[in-house]
Amino acid sequence: MRVALKLAAFFLIAVFLIGMLATVILRMRESANRLRCQDHLRQVGWFALWDYTDRDLAFPKDAPKPFQLPMDAKPKADLMFPPGTLANPNLPPEQRLSWEVILLPHLGREPLQKQFDLSQGWQAEANHNAVCTLVPLYLCTSVYRPVPPDQPAQNNYIGMAGLGFDAPKLLQTDPHAGFFRYDDATKIGSIQRGLSYTMTIIETTNEIGPWAAAGPSTVRGLDADAQPYIGRGRQFGGAHPDGANASFADGSVRFLRWNMSAKSFQAMVTLADRGQE
């Protein structure tokens, strides 16, 4: 009887220790995935975005490893960031190629961009192979699931268009306009709230689509009524417990908690200053 009790106690202790070890391993893995996701956003939202806009500011000589815009930087107000879609007057925005295609050369993927027929949309047969090419920097490793090689490669990073479903169609002078919109490329001078307070990109697991596709796959406005904004099954986040990674116009990347105030989140996704809210 005593032997049986000892064996049972040993078994329970072993199960407990294995459970604790598994929990630690999962937490370490999630921590690593979150950091890797932040690095992806940093490369896209800082290195590529600012390399497109002003290479000298993106890679200053005195800062070989910059992670955001230098505090004393004074970028020219008329410099423009990439638009939310590759301009194509023959196609509606949802059929065009995305801003993520535009940034490929600034991510060291110029050969991939050259595989595209830039005069056609993402659904064109001529662009099929390029659209199906995986670009790891556009994916969060916490939730990445392979798709068949003949299917469009997916995207987890959404360009923020502002407030409302129609935000991608707004002009940057509209108080509800955000950083990425279909046709009107944002000028630095239009970011009235300040670069460090204006969100550019945020991760999502909700209704993800091809990275090469313009439209909701890569640019979305915020539905202000669907709160909370962050979490599994919500508009944004879902990849990491408790929040979502987001990139800001100064190149910084921050982890936004799911329970942050709706007012603060809404303020981050618009270009207008507080006096215009």
Describe this structure in words.
- The protein has 6 helices and 5 strands.
- β4 (243-248) and β5 (253-257) form a beta hairpin.
- The protein has one domain (2-276).
- Helix content is 27%, strand content 10%.
- The chain has a 5-stranded mixed beta sheet.
Give the gist of this structure.
The protein has 277 residues and is of the alpha+beta class.
Following the backbone from N to C, one meets helices and strands in this order, namely HHHHHEEEEEH
**What is the strand content?**
5-15%
The average pLDDT score comes to 87
Q: Please provide the count of β strands.
A: 5
Notable features of this structure?
alpha+beta, 5-stranded mixed sheet, 6 helices, 5 strands, globular
What layout of secondary structure does this protein have?
Layout: H1 2-53, H2 55-58, H3 99-102, H4 110-113, H5 128-131, E1 157-163, E2 199-203, E3 219-222, E4 243-248, E5 253-257, H6 262-268
Parallel strand pairs: 1-3
Antiparallel strand pairs: 1-2, 2-4, 4-5
